[in-house]
Amino acid sequence: MSKQPSEVASMFDGVAAHYDVTNDILSAGNAVLWRIATVKALSAKRGEKILDIAAGTGTSSAAIAKTGAEVTALDFSAGMVEVGRKRQPHIEFVVGDAEDLPFGDDTFDAVTISFGLRNVNRPRTALAEMYRVLKPGGRLVICEFSTPTLAGVKLGYQAYLRHILPGIAKVTSSNGPAYSYLAESIEKWPDQQVLSTWIRGAGFTRVAHRNLTGGIVALHRGHKPATTSRRPGSAPA
């Protein structure tokens, strides 16, 4: 599976207008519950600076902003950002690359990314960038598709991804092939333990995860140490 950044960005440009509605349908409404869990885990406070990476049209950014935090929504799809700016005019949107974040060191109190790390060409490089822009003591929250923990759930989920999701996407989305990519990217994405190892490798401590919806999704957390004697370099892809 190729993940050339320009091709993936173009794909998301093409689904931007109906992206949120299609996601709600494909997740059988669970997308809302996953968003609530992510915002709760982020524990944003009034006045904090939060970076929401792969923010899409800003649905998660808007939910975070309700806490009173100052949210910056970043996405590499100009089409998504264009839609987001119209729907969420109170949110600052930036077109940018997760592997080369356009922010200075130690800028944000927390960084989050939901269902976007999987689409990054070099995810470990992106994790190193998240570490860099976090303030010492800052928090990382990642919500991402993962590996179901029960055999029966795993088999049923695989069947859904391969046979049911593409059919629903053809009806609900203007770009069915984009959701075929979605299914393939989920199947090829590493499990919870591997992602936890990548997060630790980027320098984060207190790394932990919990499964949502039987492990179909996992919520990962980590912290940048309050005092650091070194700054990890970009990890290999």
Automatic annotation (TrEMBL):
Task: Write out the GO biological process terms.
Answer: menaquinone biosynthetic process; methylation
Alphabetical list of Gene3D superfamilies matching this protein: Vaccinia Virus protein VP39
- Alphabetized InterPro entries for the sequence: SAM-dependent_MTases_sf, UbiE/COQ5_MeTrFase, UbiE/COQ5_MeTrFase_CS
| Record's catalysed reaction(s) | a 2-demethylmenaquinol + S-adenosyl-L-methionine = a menaquinol + S-adenosyl-L-homocysteine + H(+)
Q: Which domain of life is it from?
A: Bacteria
| Pathway given in the UniProt record | Quinol/quinone metabolism; menaquinone biosynthesis; menaquinol from 1,4-dihydroxy-2-naphthoate: step 2/2
Key words, A-Z: Menaquinone biosynthesis, Methyltransferase, S-adenosyl-L-methionine, Transferase
Q: What is its EC number?
A: 2.1.1.163
- Which residues are S-adenosyl-L-methionine-binding? 57, 75, 97-98, 114
**Family stated for the protein in its record:** Belongs to the class I-like SAM-binding methyltransferase superfamily. MenG/UbiE family.
The record's NCBIfam families line, in alphabetical order, gives:
MenG_MenH_UbiE (TIGR01934), PRK00216.1-5 (NF001244)
- PANTHER family, per this entry? 2-METHOXY-6-POLYPRENYL-1,4-BENZOQUINOL METHYLASE, MITOCHONDRIAL (PTHR43591:SF24), METHYLTRANSFERASE (PTHR43591)
Instruction: Specify the protein name.
Output: Demethylmenaquinone methyltransferase
Question: Where does this protein come from, organism-wise?
Answer: Frondihabitans australicus
The major lineage groups are: Bacteria, Bacillati, Actinomycetota, Actinomycetes, Micrococcales
